[in-house]
Task: inverse folding
């Protein structure tokens, strides 16, 4: 449950401050690049459009109204793209962690089967024999059923955890 909250939180932090969402995900290089891009773009646009200095003691509405649309829209677009990138990177990290957990669980089940008298791989299967008579096992990476006789999942091409043992 906690892992599922990481991507939206990273996106929110990226919207609040450029690069903060990526720092939260410990992607330091991306954080620096996004921060430099957004801040550098803002400085460049302010210089290019010769915007008058802003009075930051004024209310937020007055400061926002003082920024020209030609400057505000590209900066808002960059901030939005940064937040989307933080969301996608966070989702990829959550998926990778889930895949690693599934692989570790499959390895644990495999080790437990071997401790119980060296049970064959068929002891780990979740399904029955298919029409060809081949035993099916669930791939820890993608969750689809694959043939236990081959050393990789034919759906996602990830090696099965017991492939390197034999």
Result:
């Amino acid at each position: 449950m906690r892992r599922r909250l990481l991507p939206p939180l990273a996106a929110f932090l990226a919207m609040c401050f450029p690069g903060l969402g990526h720092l939260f995900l410990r992607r330091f290089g991306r954080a620096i690049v996004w921060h430099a891009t957004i801040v550098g773009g803002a400085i460049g646009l302010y210089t290019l459009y010769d915007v008058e200095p802003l009075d930051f003691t004024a209310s937020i509405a007055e400061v926002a109204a003082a920024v020209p649309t030609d400057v505000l829209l590209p900066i808002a677009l960059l901030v939005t793209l940064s937040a989307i990138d933080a969301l996608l990177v966070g989702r990829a990290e959550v998926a990778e962690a889930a895949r690693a957990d599934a692989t570790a669980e499959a390895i644990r089940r495999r080790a437990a089967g071997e401790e119980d008298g060296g049970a064959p791989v068929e002891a780990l299967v979740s399904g029955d024999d298919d029409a060809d008579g081949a035993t099916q096992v669930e791939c820890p990476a993608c969750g689809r059923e694959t043939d236990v006789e081959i050393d990789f999942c034919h759906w996602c091409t990830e090696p099965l955890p017991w492939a390197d043992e034999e």
Residues 136 and 147 are 5 Å apart (CA to CA). Confidence is low (pLDDT under 50) at residues 115-129.
